[in-house]
Design a protein that fits this description.
This protein is mainly alpha-helical. It contains 19 helices and 6 strands. Strands 1-2 form a two-stranded antiparallel sheet. Strands 3-4 form a two-stranded antiparallel ribbon. A hairpin with a 4-residue loop joins strand 3 and strand 4. Helix 10 packs antiparallel against helix 11.
């Protein structure tokens, strides 16, 4: 995973993953806190080093944008520039992107010296040499950005340039993904190769080698599932440390995307007798669920209140009116119709997108060929199939429960995008992406193992090596496509 992830990291430039620029600035804010610097100014804009300003304004056409905007407002103007939007590094993978990475940005030596002076100044000069970013941060738990922020902080302490800062943040995120993956595979009672196969899908590696908080969701959802399956089918008793592990994972991972909190339902796969009695089971359930609710209350309470209390909604990207929470509750038939249309019209795209149909900020040209998508699917199915003499642990009621939890999460994902991202004029839910179901793919695949279909040949290692070869082909193909754009 580390080797393949580094390949994806190098070819797919920084900030090229979905929403990566938002995750970049969120990690930067946390890095400021680690260094004892103020995270934001009085208006809520996040401070960055002067030498990193070019990352979100490659051509430096919008330097000192805030001061200019404030001056325009004082002059009675609307404060909006007609020059367009700044070019953000990595949003499109073209010659200019790699040239900017090669040159390290057009930052003057004077700006760099000011940045270093600002960071080494006393309390009165903590913001000297710093600029503010125009990018909004993500409203979520800061724990989702600890690895990226550690990478940023290390780069800043060592005085490294912007490119090193971005790559160190990505590297630490990839390291977290691999490390938690090791713990997950160690804990899984069965299906280890299935989980590893999902971990080396192109989309998994693309996200793992980025600054996205999806890494925390992917890694900790997998570990939470592994602990639940181990306690349900292998362990003799549930220990206090197991309950603590589940509670900590829910507290860290849950607020990132609150809909994934439903994976707490996997705990019901564990027999009550393994807790000792109903009293201990109740205390354990309260600890796991309580940690999630407490984290939600601290991190997401304001966001939930905003969406549930708004009587009118506006979808900015479409410049149209959207749905309010109350409207959707009173139109269940309309909601179901939109859900059906989404699955019917976008089902294939969601499936291929989950495996890696479009990479590089969802660039349709930088994709995984469909024949490779089919090959990867076949490999995952082969890994799932029962081998001669292999024991099957899951009973039908347990499979149905897992399918139900996954269906609830998928429905909640679509409902959240319907509420926040879909204009009323749309006939389907907008903004739903296949990668959202990637955390649930391993456990869904494990429910397909059955007694009726038995694999009598093909070693798992050959299947996994085939998937690795497919990954190398995908990244080389993307590199070739980018070279053709030069």
């Amino acid at each position: 995973v580390m080797c393949l992830g580094i390949l994806y990291m190098l070819v797919l430039a920084p900030l090229s993953a979905p929403d990566e620029v938002s995750h970049y600035i969120s990690a930067y804010e946390l890095s400021n806190r680690f260094l004892g610097l103020p995270g934001t100014d009085e208006d809520g804009y996040i401070y960055i080093r002067a030498e990193d300003d070019w990352i979100e304004d490659v051509n430096q056409e919008f330097r000192d944008w805030k001061e200019k905007s404030e001056q325009e407002s004082l002059n009675g103007e609307n404060g909006e520039t007609e020059a367009g939007k700044p070019i953000i590094l990595g949003q499109t993978l073209k010659e200019e992107t790699y040239a900017a990475i090669h040159d390290g940005g057009a930052v003057s030596d004077q700006s760099a010296e000011q940045s270093v002076a600002g960071e080494s100044a006393g309390n009165s000069g903590k913001t000297a040499g710093l600029r503010v970013s125009r990018q909004p941060s993500v409203r979520t738990t800061p724990l989702a950005y600890v690895p990226q922020a550690l990478g940023f902080t290390l780069a800043r302490v060592l005085g490294l340039n912007s490119i090193a800062l971005l790559y160190l943040g990505r590297f630490f995120n990839l390291l977290l993904f691999a490390a938690v993956g090791v713990l997950t595979i160690k804990r899984l009672p069965f299906g280890k190769n299935v989980f590893f196969g999902v971990s080396i899908l192109p989309m998994s590696l693309h996200l793992a080698a980025s600054l996205s908080y999806d890494v925390v969701i992917l890694a900790f959802t997998g570990y939470f599932t592994a602990v639940c399956l181990d306690l349900a089918y292998k362990a003799d008793t549930v220990k206090v440390k197991d309950v603590i592990a589940l509670a900590v994972v829910m507290a860290v991972m849950g607020p990132c995307k609150m809909v994934y909190g439903a994976i707490a339902g996997f705990c019901l796969l564990i027999p009550v007798k393994k807790f000792g009695n109903w009293g201990k089971w109740t205390v354990s359930a309260a600890a796991v669920l309580g940690s999630f609710l407490a984290a939600m209350a601290v991190v997401n309470l304001r966001t939930v209140a905003m969406y549930t209390q708004e009587s009118d909604s506006y979808v900015a990207w479409a410049e149209e009116a959207g749905y309010s929470f109350a409207e959707l509750l009173h139109q269940p038939v309309r909601v179901l119709q939109l859900f059906y249309n989404t699955v019917a019209w976008q089902g294939e795209s969601l499936y291929s997108g989950m495996l890696g149909e479009s990479l590089g900020n969802r660039d349709a040209v930088l994709n995984t060929p469909y024949v490779v998508i089919l090959l990867l699917t076949a490999c995952l199915v082969i890994l799932v199939l029962k081998k001669p003499g292999e024991e099957i642990f899951m009973k039908i009621k347990e499979r149905l429960w897992i399918w139900f939890i996954c269906l609830v999460i998928f429905a909640a994902l679509m409902f959240s995008m319907l509420l926040a991202w879909t204009p009323k004029s749309s006939n389907m839910v907008q903004g739903v992406q296949g990668r959202y179901m990637l955390p649930l793919l391993p456990v869904l695949l494990l429910t397909l193992k059955n007694q009726k279909v038995v694999r009598t040949g093909t070693d798992d290692r050959l299947v996994l090596y085939t998937m690795m070869a497919a990954d190398v082909y995908v990244i080389l193909r993307i590199f070739a496509v980018v070279c053709l754009r030069l």
